[in-house]
Amino acid sequence: MTERAINPQDIEQKFRSIQGEIETVSTDSKKIIQIAAGVGAVLTVAIIYFLGRRSGKRNSTVLEIRRL
Question: Each residue of 13-68: pLDDT tens digit?
Fold first, then answer.
């Protein structure tokens, strides 16, 4: 069995191949993270809004004015 010698072009070609795969995965991951962050922000704002409404109703002061 004769083994072929590894030359710099082989190494460079393999690194370019790996880099291309990493960029593809990176791009897909960024999109998913952006969508998840957007959904998380909307849910956080919605939860804060509804909790604020609830506490506002519960602790609201009733002012009664009587004319004499």
Answer: 888 888 888 888 888 888 899 999 999 999 999 999 988 887 666 666 677 888 87
Q: What is the DSSP string of 42-57?
A: HHHHHHHHHHHHHHHH
**How far is Cα 50 from Cα 29, in angstroms, rounded to an integer?**
32
SS3 12: helix
| CA dist list (Å): 29 to 36, 39, 52, 56, 58 | 11, 15, 34, 40, 43
pTM comes to 0.52
Query: How far apart (Å, rounded) are the C-alpha atoms in residues 50 and 46?
Result: 6
Here the tokens at position 46 are 């919605």
Instruction: Report the distance separating Cα 33 and Cα 45, nearest Å.
Output: 18
